[in-house]
């Protein structure tokens, strides 16, 4: 069947907010809608076949992050995964950062537990020294100086790659510290899955959250990875209880078709050629735009250290603030965003025109720069002609 991918003549550079379904994913979806409709809990042949396909997808996803298949639990997306972490884990103190996604920040606050917010530098990095200090001051592990303290059960939640400014945290170093001080380590890997290598064992990760729609898969499907050693305590505290699907972590008939499509989308994203293409496009766009007058790159200055495809830019000579520039570009057929798509639901109309992104503010970026910032997020579906068009449009505006 010929598949039409119609972007209505738009240039889509908002791939951190969500992505278009890949053609191969659409094919897999159509096929599975037609053939794999039975309830995976049914004992007849069709049910068993649906169950088998879920297990194949689970095994593929688990292998890609060096986890065991029984450590992957499907649910509705990363928001649910992040909520599950804060509702179901056993902890007294949360250590996190102010640049996390709202689906980490809000459940952390709602937990009513003590929170330590790590400081960020201008490029969005946490300080490993600060993290170690806080862990040492609060952990059950006795400090060398034997200072008196009340030991706490600690949950560290640090995202792998930031969705707005593309900062990639050193999750291996964070994992080593968490292991040393016996803290639970969770990472929101929504922006990095399929784009950066993730090895849950090597990085001593206890929990990760991921979502299919950020890598050309369907919306409404994600997974939580829960290391075997934590599972017993978490299953008893699931948010959604009922038929006991996903071994009790997430009840409800499995979203079989989307699960199969998620594995396909991940397989496509892991293709080294596609990953390189995104990095190349990112470099090329920055080379084109960096010569424009008064452009500021927010976040890591070294593109090698930045999440592929992400550019967060402020055009200081333009009279537009972030949202006005997003609208100007939209009028010219280009989709980008200011800040994170999910937070824009929370701002009221007037605020949205004066408030800058909370992530940029957390990185101490000058308000004048922050309020002009736009995020351009590329994917392997983009091409050089689109970069050229954007450069032309921005050059004219400047
Ligand atoms: N975490 C990050 C870093 C995100 O970018 C998003 C989506 O915007 C989420 C979590 C929420 O994911 P979902 O849409 O699957 O709930």
Can you count the beta strands? 12
Which geometry do the CA atoms define?
A: globular
Which parts are unreliable, with pLDDT below 50 for 5 consecutive residues or more?
342-354
How is the biggest beta sheet arranged? 7 strands, mixed
Q: What is the helix fraction of residues, given as a range?
A: 25-40%
Mean pLDDT: 93
Please indicate the percent range of residues in DSSP E strands (runs of 2 or more).
Answer: 5-15%
The main sheet orders its strands as 2-8-7-6-5-3-4
**Which class of secondary structure composition applies to the elements?**
alpha/beta
Small molecules held by this entry: pyridoxal-5'-phosphate
Compute the separation of the termini in Å.
44 Å
Rg value: 22 Å
State the helix count.
Answer: 15
The arrangement of helices and strands along the chain is: EHHEHEHEHEHEEEHHHEEHEHHHHEH
Architecture blueprint of SSEs:
Blueprint lengths: L10 E2 L10 H13 L9 H20 L7 E4 L2 H11 L4 E4 L5 H9 L3 E4 L10 H11 L15 E4 L13 H10 L3 E5 L18 E5 L10 E5 L1 H8 L20 H14 L2 H18 L5 E4 L11 E6 L6 H10 L2 E2 L5 H4 L4 H6 L3 H5 L4 H4 L2 E5 L6 H14 L1
Parallel strand pairs: 1-11, 3-4, 3-5, 5-6, 6-7
Antiparallel strand pairs: 2-8, 7-8, 9-10, 10-12
Helix pairs in contact: 1-8, 2-8, 3-4, 5-6, 9-15
Bound molecules: pyridoxal-5'-phosphate.
């Amino acid at each position: 069947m010929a598949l039409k991918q119609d972007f209505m003549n738009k240039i889509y550079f908002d791939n951190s907010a969500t992505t278009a379904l890949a053609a191969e994913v659409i094919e897999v979806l159509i096929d599975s809608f037609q053939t794999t409709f039975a309830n995976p809990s049914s004992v007849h042949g069709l049910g068993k076949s649906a169950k088998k396909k879920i297990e194949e997808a689970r095994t593929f996803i688990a292998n890609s992050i060096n986890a065991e298949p029984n450590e992957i639990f499907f649910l509705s997306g990363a928001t649910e995964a992040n909520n599950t972490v804060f509702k179901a884990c056993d902890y007294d103190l949360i250590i996190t950062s102010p640049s996390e996604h709202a689906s980490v920040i809000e459940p952390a606050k709602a937990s009513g537990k003590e929170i330590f917010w790590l400081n960020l530098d201008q490029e969005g990095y946490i300080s490993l020294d600060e993290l170690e200090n806080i862990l040492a001051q609060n952990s059950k592990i006795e400090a060398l100086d034997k200072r008196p303290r009340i030991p706490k059960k600690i949950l560290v939640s640090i995202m792998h790659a930031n969705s707005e400014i593309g900062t990639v945290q050193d999750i291996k170093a964070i994992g080593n510290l968490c292991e040393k001080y016996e803290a639970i380590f969770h990472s929101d890997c929504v922006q990095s899955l399929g784009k950066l290598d993730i090895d849950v064992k090597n990085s001593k990760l206890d929990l990760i959250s991921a979502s299919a729609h950020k890598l050309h898969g369907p919306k409404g499907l994600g997974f939580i990875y829960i290391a075997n050693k934590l599972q017993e305590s978490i299953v008893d505290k699931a948010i959604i209880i009922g038929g006991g699907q996903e071994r009790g972590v997430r009840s409800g008939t499995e979203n079989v078709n989307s699960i199969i499509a998620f594995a396909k989308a991940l397989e496509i994203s892991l293709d080294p050629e596609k990953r390189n293409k995104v990095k190349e496009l990112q470099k090329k766009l920055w080379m084109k735009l960096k010569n424009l007058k008064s452009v500021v790159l927010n976040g890591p200055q070294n593109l090698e250290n930045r999440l592929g495809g992400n550019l967060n830019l402020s055009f200081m000579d333009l009279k537009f603030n972030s949202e006005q520039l997003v609208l100007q570009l939209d009028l010219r057929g280009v989709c980008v965003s200011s800040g994170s798509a999910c937070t824009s639901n929370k701002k009221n109309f007037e605020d949205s025109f004066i408030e800058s992104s909370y992530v940029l503010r957390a990185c101490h970026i000058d308000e004048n720069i922050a309020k002009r910032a736009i995020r351009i997020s590329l994917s392997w579906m983009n091409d050089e002609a689109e970069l050229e068009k954007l450069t032309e449009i921005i050059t004219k505006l400047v």
